[in-house]
């Protein structure tokens, strides 16, 4: 697969030198994966970073036997479990594709080689970890301080086609409400003038 699309996505973050592009192309793997494929599967450590070129994924944990969705990712998003990838800690989460997807992946060893040799790799690492932190803090703030409707609106704004990508059950789980509450909430707001 031509890596130009990968470089295009990464170039939105930082300037990429030709030598870094060449080295990166040797270290990344392009995968075309089916719907329902797991990128991260607890309790195994996740030792890869993934960039979704096309597709959609959901992240979840099991709590008291129930699936609790905590994240969604779309085209252009980077999926990483920092504890698993960089600290070799067993994952507690699952990341599953919700549709056939095209994914670039790089393993921890390859990433370390690039980080040791290229400032671009170190800069990308800082950007990815910074975004992970900001998203985690934003999610925490939203759950604590925003209504379910406000969280739903933010989700739809971020992923306008999410309702075609995942079930209402998973959207409700992400919002920390029941599917019935989600249906009722959407109906109530649809009927407002």
Written account of the structure:
The longest helix has 27 residues, at 119-145. The chain has two domains: 4-137, Jelly Rolls (Sandwich); 146-193. It has a four-stranded antiparallel β-sheet. The protein has nine helices and eight strands. Helix 4 crosses helix 5 (119-145) and helix 8 (168-175) packs across helix 9 (179-190). The chain is of the alpha+beta class and 193 residues long. The chain has helices at 4-11, 18-27, 82-87, 108-117, 119-145, 148-158, 162-165, 168-175, 179-190; strands at residues 29-33, 38-40, 48-54, 56-63, 66-74, 78-79, 94-97, 101-107.
Task: Give the key terms.
four-stranded antiparallel beta sheet; 9 helices; alpha+beta; single chain; 193 residues; Jelly Rolls; 50% helix
CATH superfamily of the largest domain: Jelly Rolls
Total E-strand runs? 8
Determine the strand fraction and express it as a percent band: 15-25%
CATH topology type of the largest domain: Jelly Rolls
Beginning-to-end CA distance, first to last residue:
50 Å
Rg (C-alpha, Å): 18 Å
What is the mean predicted local confidence, pLDDT?
89
Helix content: 40-55%
Do you know the CATH architecture of the largest domain?
Sandwich
Largest beta-sheet characterization: 4 strands, antiparallel
What's the short story on this structure?
This protein has 193 residues and is of the alpha+beta class. 50% of the residues lie in helices and 23% in strands.
What topology emerges from the helices and strands here?
Layout: H1 4-11, H2 18-27, E1 29-33, E2 38-40, E3 48-54, E4 56-63, E5 66-74, E6 78-79, H3 82-87, E7 94-97, E8 101-107, H4 108-117, H5 119-145, H6 148-158, H7 162-165, H8 168-175, H9 179-190
Helix pairs in contact: 4-5, 8-9
């Amino acid at each position: 697969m031509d890596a130009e699309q990968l470089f295009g996505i990464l170039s939105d973050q930082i300037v990429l030198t030709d030598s870094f592009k060449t080295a990166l192309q040797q270290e990344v793997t392009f995968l075309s994966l089916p719907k329902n494929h797991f990128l991260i599967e607890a309790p195994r450590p996740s030792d890869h970073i993934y960039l979704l070129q096309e597709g959609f994924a959901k992240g979840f944990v099991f709590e008291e036997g129930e699936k609790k969705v905590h994240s969604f990712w779309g085209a252009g998003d980077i999926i990483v479990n920092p504890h698993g990838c960089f600290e070799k800690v067993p994952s507690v989460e699952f990341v599953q594709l919700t549709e056939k997807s095209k994914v670039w992946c790089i393993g921890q060893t390859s990433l370390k080689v690039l980080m040791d040799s290229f400032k671009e790799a170190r800069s990308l690492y800082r950007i990815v970890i910074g975004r992970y932190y900001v998203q985690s803090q934003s999610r925490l703030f939203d759950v604590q301080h925003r209504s379910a409707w406000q969280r739903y609106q933010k989700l739809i704004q971020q992923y306008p086609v999410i309702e075609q990508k995942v079930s209402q059950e998973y959207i409700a789980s992400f919002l920390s409400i029941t599917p019935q509450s989600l249906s009722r909430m959407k109906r109530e707001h649809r009927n407002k003038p």
